[in-house]
Amino acid sequence: MTGVPELLAKKRKRDEQFAAQKAAAAVEGRKKAKENRAAIFKKAEAYVNEYRAQEKDLVRLKREAKSKNGFYVEPESKLLFVIRIRGLNKVHPKTKKILQLLRLRQINNAVFLRVNKATLGLLKRVEPYIAFGYPNLKSVKELIYKRGHAKINGNRIPLTDNKLIEQNLGKFGIICMEDLVHEIYSVGPHFREASNFLWPFKLNSALGGMDKKRLHYVEGGQAGNREGEINNLIKAMN
Prior knowledge:
By secondary structure, this protein is α+β, with helices and mostly antiparallel strands. It contains 8 helices and 7 strands. It has helices at residues 3-67, 93-101, 117-125, 137-147, 162-169, 177-185, 191-197, 230-237, and strands spanning 79-84, 109-114, 130-133, 149-152, 155-158, 201-202, 224-225. The strands form 2 sheets. Strands 6-2-1-3-7 form a 5-stranded mixed sheet. Strands 4-5 form a two-stranded antiparallel sheet. Helix 4 (137-147) crosses helix 6 (177-185). The N and C termini lie far apart (71 Å).
């Protein structure tokens, strides 16, 4: 008989300790969330100032070149956006393998890639099946905010909370959507981790359809490098 009250007392003590730990964790969580919100706001403000400064520099350099009767050639973009525009019908095994390596397994799948010799070599091999070019900041933001999904333990998870980003990319200093956008757009030191964290985008079919897919863009078709014009295609498919 004496054992029952003792067990109840132990259980009550455990419950009280658990409740106290839970309350402390909740307080700590709220404190950290408040700190994170302040840090995210500061980062977002810094990124906006950085983008505005870049735009002002570009305008200034163009005006200076024009005043000297010259042309300002913008530096080559470091970021590519690649969209798969054709299906699997009669695809060579090597071509199929390259598309899989690029994570373009289905029609209308799309990914961000870093511009380098290896990437351009792969894109050349599969050029008839893809459209690609240099996305601007507006396109990158709209894609990630509207269609961004994370790849977490092999699952496709919508990016609805900054906690998902912090838990998976926090060790790289990427804790929110603005960090993710900045890392992708600027092709930062952790671009690979940020890009792999994003599940390949699943875009809509282009408004009005896409004719002459087998022809290169410069021949009036859809395939290949369309440089800055990729932003119009993104707008039609996003």
